[in-house]
Amino acid sequence: MIIYPSIDKLLEKVPSRYSLAVLAAKRAHELEAGDLKMLSDYKSDKSVGKALEEIAAGDVIIDPKSKMLERDAEKLDHKD
Predict the structure, then answer these.
(1) What is the pLDDT of residues 19-74, one digit of tens each?
(2) pLDDT of res. 15
(3) pLDDT digits (tens, 9 = 90+) for 6-23
(4) What are the b/e assignments for 27-39, b being 16+ CB within 10 Å?
(5) Contact by Cβ (8 Å): 55, 24
(6) Which long-range contacts (CB under 8 A, 24 or more apart) does 9-16 make?
(7) CATH number of the structural domain spanning residue 25
(8) How far is CA 24 from the centre of its chain?
(9) What is its EC number (predicted)?
(10) Which of 35, 51, 56, 59 could form a disulfide with 28 if both were Cys (CB 3.0 to 4.6 A apart)?
């Protein structure tokens, strides 16, 4: 089974795995809450998969002015 999108493609769009996890989770919550979908067609049925597809497409990005995502990723990093 091939997982789409690949982690390599996703890491071209997001600087770290931790930031990717936080960004995908936040976007998945938005989709679950009824936020507008950014793509017309998704391969995944689940909100996390849809969020990852949007990130891979470049439709969901990290706001460079926002430090919230960076802080959330640092919290994940320090739990190891």
Answers:
(1) 899 999 999 999 999 999 999 999 999 999 999 999 999 998 877 666 655 666 66
(2) 86
(3) 999 999 998 889 889 999
(4) bbeebeeeeeebe
(5) yes
(6) 9/56, 10/52, 10/55, 10/56, 13/55, 13/56, 13/58, 13/61, 14/55, 14/62, 15/62, 16/73
(7) 3.90.940.10
(8) 3
(9) 2.7.7.6
(10) 51
Quote the domain boundaries for residue 39. Answer: 7-78
Tokens of 24: 């995908």
Q: What is the pTM of this model?
A: 0.78
Return d(Cα 55, Cα 13) in angstroms, integer: 7
| 2 part of a folded domain | no
Q: Which residue has the tokens 């470049």?
A: 58
- 58 is a domain residue: yes
